[in-house]
Amino acid sequence: MIKVKEIQASSIITKSNLPDADYVINPYVGCAHSCIYCYARFMKRFTGHTEEWGKFVDVKINAPDLIPVKTEKYKGKSIFLSSVTDPYLPLERKYQLTRKILERLIPLEPDLGVLTKSDLVARDIDLLKQFKNCEVGFTITTLDDNLRKEIEPFTSPVENRIKALEKVKEAGIKTYVFIGPILPFLTDWKKIILKTKHCSDFYMFEDLNIKGSIWSSVKKWLKEKHPELAEKYERVYFSKSDYWSKVKEEIKQFCEEQKVDYKIYFHYD
Q1: Start and end of every Elp3/MiaA/NifB-like radical SAM core domain (predicted)?
Q2: Would you say 73 and 15 are in contact if contact means Cβ atoms under 8 Å apart?
Q3: Distance between CA atoms of residues 182 and 239, nearest Å
Q4: What is the domain range of residue 30?
Q5: What is the pLDDT of residues 159-176, one digit of tens each?
Q6: Cα separation of 114 and 134, whole Å?
Q7: Taking a C-beta distance cutoff of 8 angstroms, is the pair 201, 166 a contact?
Q8: What sections of the chain are H helices per DSSP?
C-alpha cells in the first residue's frame, strides 16, 4: 500500500548535480515503483518519512505554479525530469503534474530531458514535440518481464516501454535507452540493444551501485529469488574482481560493432 499525501512545494526547478543537466524537476517526493536497487532512497533522510522507501509519494500539487511565466533564465539550459523520482508515476494519470509542468516550460525554451520507466510518457508527445531540443529516455534493466516484476514490481511492462519508445521516436523526438543498473549475470544488455536499436538514438549504461542500504535490499532479493547468484555477487563486489572493467570493454566493443552511440556511467572506478 502506497501512502499518498498532497503537499505544497516551495520551489520546483533546482540546480542539478547530474553531469548532463543544469537543472532538475521532481514533481513528486518518493516513488511508487519499489525498485530493489533504487539509489534515491537516500532522500528519506530529508523527507521526514517513517515509511519504507517505495511505500510513500508526496504530490507537489502546486508544482506547475512555481514555474515562472516569463524568464530568459532557462533558455538553452538543460532541464531534466527527474532525478529522484519518476515523472510518470501511476499517480501522474490522476494529477497530471508533469503534463502541466511541460506546458509551462515550453515558452521558456530549455533543452529538455526526460527519463522514465513508464509508457505514460507517450501521452505527452504533443507537448514534447514543441521543445526545440528534447530527448526522452526509457530505463530498461531487463527484457524478461518476470525478472522485471521481481526487481521493479510497479513499473510498466518492458514491452509497453518499447512500444512507447517507438511512438516517441516516430514523433521525431530524440530517444535513448538507459540500460541500468546492469545486474550481474542477469541483465542481457546486448539483447536490449538489438531489440531497441531501431528506435533508440543512443544508449547509457550504468553498473549496479550497492552503496548505502542498496546492498541489503539486493542481497535479500538474491537469497529469495536467485540463491545460486548470491556468492557470485559477493565475489564481484567484495573481492578484487575485474568484472566491471571487463563489462565496460565488452560494451565499448559491442556498441562500436553495432554502430550505436553510447555513454558509460560506472561507479566502480
Answers
A1: 21-252
A2: no
A3: 19
A4: 3-265
A5: 999 999 999 999 999 999
A6: 8
A7: no
A8: 44-47, 92-95, 97-105, 125-128, 145-151, 158-170, 189-196, 214-225, 227-238, 243-258
CB 33 within 8 A of CB 155: yes
**Number of domains comprising the chain:** 1
User: Is the N-terminal amide bond of 16 cis, ω within 30° of 0?
Assistant: no
Q: List the strands of the sheet with 133-139, edge to edge.
A: 13-15, 23-25, 78-81, 111-116, 133-139, 174-182, 202-207, 261-265
DSSP-derived letter for residue 121 is G
Structure confidence by residue, pLDDT tens digits, 37-89: 987 666 555 666 667 766 789 999 999 999 999 899 999 999 999 888 999 99
> Three cell numbers at 261?
552511440
**C-alpha 213, offset from chain centre:** 19
Cis-peptide, bond into residue 181, ω within 30° of zero: yes
- The Cα 73–Cα 34 span in angstroms is 35
How many C-beta neighbours within 10 Å does residue 28 have?
Answer: 26
Are the C-beta atoms of residues 27 and 97 closer than 8 Å to each other?
yes
Residues 6+ apart with CB under 8 A from 256: none
Q: How far apart, in whole angstroms, are the C-alpha atoms of residue 226 and residue 232?
A: 11
CA distance 148 to 158: 8
Distances (CA, A) of 102 to 107, 110, 131, 252: 10, 11, 9, 35
CATH of the domain at 230: 3.80.30.30
Angle between helices 243-258 and 189-196 (to 10 degrees): 20
